[in-house]
Amino acid sequence: MDNLEQLVVEKYPKIIVQHQQSPSYIEMHTKHTNDVLMICMKNKPLDKAVNLQSDQNRNTETEELELTGSPLKLDLSLHAILDDTLIAEEPQLWKKDEALHYPISIKKAREIANLCNETLRTLQRDDVIPVWILTNPSDDGHPLLLTIQSDFKHFTRGIVAYQGALPIEDVNAEKLLEDYATQEKICTDLVDSTIDCKYLLSGISYGSHNIEELLNAPHNGVTELHCRWKGKSFQIPFISCKVYFEQEVIIGHMCSPCNPIWKSLSALHYINQMLIDMTAAGSSSVDLETAVIRNYTSGAKIPNNTERLNELLSETETYAYTAEYPAGGCICVTDYTATLKECFAVMAVNGSSNDFTYRLWDILKDCQTAEELITLLIQALKFISSGKIRPFIDANNKTYLSKLVLKLSRGHSQTSKVLKNLRTSPPQALSLVAQVGIEKTMWEYTRIMSLVENSFYIAGIWTSDSRSHESIEQINQTIQDMTMGGDFNMNPFDSLAGGDQSIRLEYESFCADEDHELTVDDFASLKKHGLVAEKKDANEVPLITDEIDISPWKNILMKFSQVHVCLEHLYRAETWLRADFASLKPVTSYLLQHYVSEKSPIKTIGQLMSDPVQKVVMPIVNNTVQDQLKKPALWYRLELSKKEGVTDGVDRDSRVVHVISQLPVFPPSVWQNLEPSVEDAAEVTTTGEDLKYYCTKYTYLSNEYVARIKLP
């Protein structure tokens, strides 16, 4: 194949020969994403139509230098108030980089095809890469593509041609089947007819954008339905068709409602990496003033974390020693929460908990550097040690920072030494904060995901429960058997309370004997207001001496990243399928089995940061999407071929594929040569009989060579 590339380039110097994955317009007709040898013209000055499309794609370097800046770098504060469904660009079926593919005249394309065929026919089938040539549809017959896929035994070729624009009601699938049967000289009963179509529910793909563009794009992914069935009509048979839910999400997108938890994940990722570096090379190996906790994209509004902390301390002081402070626990998930959207809306405004250390984490995770984080932590602890406030700590909060907060708030004899040691020991300070972040994040995922899946299974993800190898359906059945259909409550952190994850500080930090131990009356008072757990010793037993243990965090953070991808998918599925929790349960089961397993494509949080686009394709129950299937599809594809084992008719392998699409399948550099023009093509209406579909036809033929006669 290398010789073929060189041969074509030498004979046609103005031609591009590129070994690449199938372009979108070839994939649309073949359903294949395999490698091909793509042949087209070299770049030439863009005409008005192509420039128009390029402007829509924001794909020019000069645009970066304009006074208005890149439209993909809008002020994030503006985007924060925009709906995540906002689409600044028109949907398109071709990829952005394909706008630089230019067609070749049909005469020259045939010359190149003949040249390629002479070379390919000397190769074995396994050595052949399909050759595709992009052609100018303004020529007779409106050819769009030629392909040569011959080998030593077969003469294989194909052509894609434009057939016109029609309403879908005027495209007769049965007539197309009869035409194919006539072409192959067989009866219609011997024709295999497969139809598939796609519904675009939201978004457009940003697969060719870089990371910065993805995270600043005005929407966050694609949601589609792909249907397949056997038949002779484009009318979907609701009972027999197979429906696949296809979705692309952008992890960390600024408009995603899941971002409050994603911020925790990214901050924990950076803190964990710092602690690993400090453990390996010492505390001085990390420059706290430059060590990143939060990466803010260009134009982002950076919060005043000092002001936020002061507001938290002031609010806590207002409620000190009173019963007016709101009850603890999860405030974003209640018995009345009906959708994930409601849950995240509350979380965005009020957070997820009234626990002081959890609210403190929500501030510290937004710090830009480790120096800022440690400084604010010391500031908070110093204020607490003044005795002016009695912070609320949820009874289930088992972190050492929560114990430290309670001990300092009642007046510790060595407060100054505690704060000094934390200031001079960055690993201890970072570990205290990170432990709170890990437990809060674990708790949030458990509570939120429990809306659509049983908490027993979700808790098993973190605890590596011995039952976690069972399927979700088996676990749900077991729980139903145990509870006789009733509610099953379980604290997912019982097994973690005394586990190896506990972060411990040196004994001398704050464990010396003190004169301010709690009396029975003091303990009863604190307990009354929910400031301590049931057992008195939960806050009285001093922390024991030990080194910081972060070894379990790597696995936990991996699980966090896997569950987060599931949550991103679920939120968009709920929004665009208009599904309730019951309808989302099968989707949830599939996502958890796909992402939260040993075979999961997600291994680290860093992987999601470098490759934020995540795609999933899953079967879905037809009843869940029945309303969506009543609308016209974005495109239909009819594939016709002989049924397996049929030997009647013309002795050859043949296939005909009809693509009927609302949008042009080819980029403007090709489509501008067709009638209607690109301007007319953009004016696709969405009402009744005026909705036009562009029709293209792909014909594939393959014959075995006749035995060659050697002449003397």
Rg value: 32 Å
Based on secondary structure, the structural category is alpha+beta
Spatial strand sequence of the major β-sheet = 1-2-3-4-5-12-11-10-6-7-8-9
Q: Write down the domain tally.
A: 2
Whole-number mean pLDDT: 79
Detailed description of the structure:
The protein has 712 residues and is an alpha+beta fold. It has two domains: 2-253 and 630-704, no CATH class; 259-611, no CATH class. The chain has 24 helices and twelve strands. A twelve-stranded mixed β-sheet has the order 1-2-3-4-5-12-11-10-6-7-8-9, sandwiched between helices. Helix 8 packs antiparallel against helix 15, helix 11 packs across helix 15 (426-449) and helix 15 (426-449) packs parallel to helix 20. The two termini are 31 Å apart. 39% of the residues are buried. Residues 45-88, 465-470, 478-546 and 677-688 have low confidence and may be disordered.
What is the topology?
Elements: H1 2-11, E1 15-21, H2 24-30, E2 35-41, H3 48-57, H4 76-79, H5 106-120, E3 131-134, E4 143-148, E5 154-167, H6 173-184, E6 191-202, H7 211-216, E7 221-230, E8 242-250, H8 259-281, H9 305-318, H10 340-350, H11 356-364, H12 370-384, H13 400-409, H14 415-424, H15 426-449, H16 455-463, H17 472-483, H18 520-528, H19 537-540, H20 553-577, H21 581-595, H22 605-610, E9 613-619, E10 635-642, E11 653-661, H23 668-671, H24 678-681, E12 692-704
Parallel strand pairs: 2-3
Antiparallel strand pairs: 1-2, 3-4, 4-5, 5-12, 6-7, 6-10, 7-8, 8-9, 10-11, 11-12
Helix pairs in contact: 8-15, 8-20, 9-11, 9-12, 11-15, 12-14, 12-15, 15-16, 15-20, 20-21
